[in-house]
Structure formats: C-alpha cells, structure tokens
Amino acid sequence: MKVKSFSGTKQFFFGLLYLSDVIAFLISVCIASRLTGINLADSFYIRYYIFSLLILIISYSNYGLYNDKRNLFDDTDFMNILYSNIITFIVLLVFMIMFNPLESILIKATIIALVLSILFTTIGRVILNSIVRIARKKGYDVRRTIFFGDEKDELLEKIMDGDLGYNVIKVTKSANELKKHLHNAEIVFIKMESIDDSMLELMMKHDKINWKIVSSVLNLVIDPVALDEFKDYPIINISNKDTTKGYMRMKRIMDIVMSSVSLIVLSPIFLIIAILIKITMPGPIFYKHNRLGKNLKPFMLYKFRTMRVNADKEKKNLHNEVKGIFKVKNDPRTTSLGKILRRSCIDELPQLINIFRGEMSMVGPRPHLNEELSNFDGWRRVRFNVKPGLTGLWQVNGRHELNFDKAVLYDIYYVKHMSLFLDVSIILKTIPAILMTKGRY
After folding, report:
1. Which of 16, 240, 363, 397 is the right S-S partner for 389, CB 3.0 to 4.6 Å?
2. Which sequence spans correspond to the domains of the chain?
C-alpha cells in the first residue's frame, strides 16, 4: 500500500467525528423544537441545549466513542451511543428537578431530541466511517504496523484488511527481527502466550509505539488483574461466578415475560411465515431437533423449517466449513424462503416456545447437538452449566465469523459473568449485530 503523507490526518478525522456528532444533535434539537413548539430564540433554551450537548459529548467520551481505534463504527458503538443518550436524559431530568424548569413540553422535547440524536449520530458515523475507509484505501490515515506472531494467524488476515488502515511492514516471530524494524513502526501487535522480561523492557524503551497485546485464551474468561497478598506482583485470580438465586429468579421472570409477550405480538408474523412455508415447500412448518440443554439435559428445539424435506439425510454428502458445529455457506439444501429466514434470524423465533417452557433462556450459550458434544472436552464443558439462549455473547460478536474456540470462550465468559445488566446489554445488541455482522449463514 502506498502511504501518502498528510499532516494531522488523525486529528482531522477525529475533528470530523466531533463535528458529525454536534451537527447530529443540533439537527435533532431543531426538529424536536419544531414538533413541540419550543422557541429556540429564548435564551433559556439556548443555554439548556448547550448544557445538554456538553453532557452528551462527555457521555460519548466516557463510553469510548472518541477513543483512537481503527474501526470508527460498529454495533458496540451503536450501543454506546444509546447508553450515552440515556445517561444524558437522566442527568437532564435531575437538572430539571433540582432547578425547577420541570415542564412537560421541555421533557417531551428532550426525549424527542435524544431519540433523534441516536438516529442521526448513527447515520453520521456510518457515513464518516465509509469516507475514512475510502481514504485509507487511497493511502491516507494508514499506520505502519508490525505483527509479532505466526504468518498464518487468523488475526493477521483481519489486520491486513485495507479498511482498517494497517500497513503491515513486517510479520515475524523473532524478537531480534522485531527490534530491527521497530524504528519504522507505529503499531505492534503481539500475539503470544506469555510476555517475558525482555519483551517488557522493549515496550518500555519504545513507549511511543502503540503496543497491542492480544489476550491469551485465559484472559477472556478470568477476572481482571489485581494486586493480591503478593503486593509486588499483579495476580490473576481464576474464580467461579457466584450467581445468586435472586438473579436466577429474575432471569426466569424476564424469560417468561419476554417470551410470552413476544409470542403474542409476533403471532401474526408466525402465521404469515407458516403460510409461506406451506406454499413454497412441502413438509412440516417447524424443524424439530434434539439439543443439549443445561447440565447436558436434552430437549426438543423448535425452528421454522428452512431446508427441504429429508435435508438431514443429505448432511453426510456436504463438507462442514465451521469447526465444532456443522455449518455450510450457500448450503444447497436451503430453500429460497429459507435463505431469507436465516439471513434475518426469523427462523429461530419459535425458540421462544422453548424459552417459555423453561428449556432455554433469552440469553445464554448456543444450544448444541448431541453429536457435537465430543468437541467440548475439558474446560469447554463449563458452557453447559447454564441454559442455552436465543441470543448470546458469541452471536453479538461475530456469529459464524468467529472460529469455534472463540465462540466457546464467549460462552464461558458469559457463564462466569452472568448478570441482568449483561443480559439486557446482549439483548439490546442483538438486532444491530444481526444487521451489521458479516457472519450470517
């Protein structure tokens, strides 16, 4: 890649990011004021919205929306935009209560403005992200990068994606080779199981380089580094998540409420899909299959049928493309309607029945087949300690784009960090993850 010199490229793009967010908020305020009849010429409302913008920008910053990262927008950023606007509304509501400008018209205008802000900020960042990607392919905003790891590493392939603006100048596993090229690098990715004293010394010596240490498999599933009784050493404590009975009861109540309401609300859609399945392909409406539930207890899972009749018998003639679970891109057994149902994940909605019956949860690990159990040896069995879910961490972090071990690690992370906050966060991230992630088949 030919890298073009452009002084202040990073600052320029971040300036555009701030400008985009400010414009999005101002547009939202203008529309909200027009809809509610608020006079923006009034000095109080001018001060109020300037204060609102300040709180919003601080919230965006607090949620990492202005961090220096190569991917300017993804589903995590969308959730952070959502959280920031919610926090801003809470702060503004407290402000109204404390200083007594608690007017229904102001509350209404604030809600409309912040809801629109979520929409326009998202649109602005998507557009800006596209502009930056085009600029990077032309050589702007590109960082000279070294990858310290295996040449065939999966992460290296992602790093070399031109959209992210990494210009990989060296790939090596030799510390001596790394030292030779550090003078020309801005970013170094380290993919290794452990870091010795010589590597730490190298990092301290070259402190202007952005070092990116890729977590080992353990770092994903254990608690953060902490100083324990050995005060001179950071200790990593491996501990089990102590899920309380109160949380489990709340989780079950949430499952019952959400599944029952969803089944009622979605019943017309279920009827339409059932009719379309009957019209377009002979056979049953639902695909029923035994899956492994909590503590390996089997249960009957329901999905809308997306394949032709007797598709399971044709499975042996196909080549599996995902380790640990059977998945095939462009599966010839899938019908035209089935491709649409799978692409939108609508085929999985009948699992709401399983959730209502208590066999599954709204959030949890993927429900696996019995024949896939042999892939879960040793530490991987931990992910069967909880009910499987309709959605989960691996679904909102890449789906089938992830390799098998990473998907299992996300499941184990969830098992060890279960909470209502994490459940709600995953549920809220599911729709944008379905719309934006590439790993769908």
Report:
1. 363
2. 9-137, 143-214, 245-436
